[in-house]
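Assemble and predict.
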Amino acid sequence: MLPETSVAREAFRFLPSSPCFTLERLGNTRESLIHQLRAGDPRALARVISAVENRTPGWSELLKTLFPHTGHARILGMTGAPGAGKSTLVDQLARHYRKEDRTVGIIAVDPTSPYTGGAILGDRIRMQEHFCDPGIYIRSMATRGSLGGLARATADVTTVLDASGRDLIMIETVGVGQDEIDVVRVADITVVILVPGMGDDVQTIKAGIMEIADIFVINKSDREGAERVEREIRALQSLATRSDRWTPPIVKTIASEGKGIAELAAAIANYESYLQKENLALKRSVQNWQERLIEMLRDAFLEKARAQMSDGEMLRYAAEIAEHRRDPYTLIEQIVENSEPM
Amino acid sequence: MLPETSVAREAFRFLPSSPCFTLERLGNTRESLIHQLRAGDPRALARVISAVENRTPGWSELLKTLFPHTGHARILGMTGAPGAGKSTLVDQLARHYRKEDRTVGIIAVDPTSPYTGGAILGDRIRMQEHFCDPGIYIRSMATRGSLGGLARATADVTTVLDASGRDLIMIETVGVGQDEIDVVRVADITVVILVPGMGDDVQTIKAGIMEIADIFVINKSDREGAERVEREIRALQSLATRSDRWTPPIVKTIASEGKGIAELAAAIANYESYLQKENLALKRSVQNWQERLIEMLRDAFLEKARAQMSDGEMLRYAAEIAEHRRDPYTLIEQIVENSEPM
């Protein structure tokens, strides 16, 4: 009765599966694949990302090998409400950086479900535009791999893009839930994109992402209400001081006309200088890694746990609980303590 | 540099802590507390919910004891975009059920961060209105307890309310992210609330929650664009058939004027009959429990993992990773395999 894309199925997707599809079958040894990736080959990049995303056997060895090559890329998180014009803004910013001859990777986290097929379609349309420029690599990811899967997958793909030598990685996501906040945590710099006229309680959306914004963008700033959005941001900012004493600037853009893009790039560069000057970049990275380690531990233990239980057992337990013949709290305790549930 | 309410801190909140606040200090033995709860005492209800939410020592024993008493309540998930008028609709529906002398519990999952303090304020305002009616119990929950914490906490509070004998439990949440979809999974029946004029790509919001809707509500249906929203729902519905062959009806309401509430209650009753007739209620419950068991396992393993590592160790690992002196993938493998990281 629930759709095919239910969370349980998605969770299984990340578990060790039968090796129906191995790196060797791709016609590459791991060494040669990584060599090609590091040399900038976009096909090698796409293969490694797919292997990591799909948990193809050998994926963790790939990440282990790639990790020491990371740390070069500047990672931008770009988040905002649906309809804020994020894709257009990200594309314009990518174009700007390409003019400076910096290579760009874009990870578009698309909340559209398989129901409407939005992610794939959007990807194709956007890929086409940049088709001739190997300096821009765009990858769409759907939000269906839940249970922390999305944040983890995004972080892993960021690792691959970083190791491939991209100068800038932009992670584009809809900033409305905890998912997105987790995703953006991978970023060095977070840009929150707002738009005038989102309705009465745009506050509700803003509140959750206010805290993670290093830079605010008011896009479609020629629309009525832009001044009001700016006043609201300022009012919320006056309620609390950040521990790093940074006051996020507000940049007005009209992304569809390319207006304000240079100003946004300047604001990003300015915050980068601030991070360097105050020696905050490493501090932030340490904090992010503390949180990511917890997530990674959780996921790893879940995989271990699931590997110990067959689908049939899980179904039987669920049925017993649904019929109130078994209490789930005791069951979980028993499994975690590694004793046999009775 | 990140706010105080960072995910890691929230994760720690759920871990076994020093018993600074035990059930005994509340002046109740577990048995008498549960007896009072089952007799309908709202103070006992509030205490048990707090104990479960705050993971007060003894919380899991409480849930184990209460679980066999659950299964009576009908659980409604009410979800929709910010500004859709969910609270008003839920309040009106609660009023409707109270007229039929059915007792109601409301869990309002409020996405507003502590930054603006929305949850507490909203709770107080709403509590005041129903203050004289012990047949309505309202509990607000913030979305900050992430890492699955919110979905789990909501499910646990639902267990407590169910065991307390409430006829109906309404879980009200903002339907925009995976969090909310996880929260709503606890429900027997899911109502998705839309509103005209949400902007160009209300599609983005709808797509993710289309799949979980058993009933659609177009609230504020006197506004321009109501017909368009209805057409859009129908168009999306035409793309896929649900495996249970149910076509979610569309109910138009103006909650602020109490219009359409009886029709909504009738639509809910109608779907209930369908579930019973087709013997689908149990099937759905089994499916939900399969997914919840995975979440519970994950959370339990997270607690176990965290208990094995001191904050100091975690900080040291994070710093080594941030400086690229250690690769996180190997570290996690070592911890999960229970070998000593080097």
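The domain at 71-278 of chain A is CATH 3.40.50.300 (Rossmann fold).
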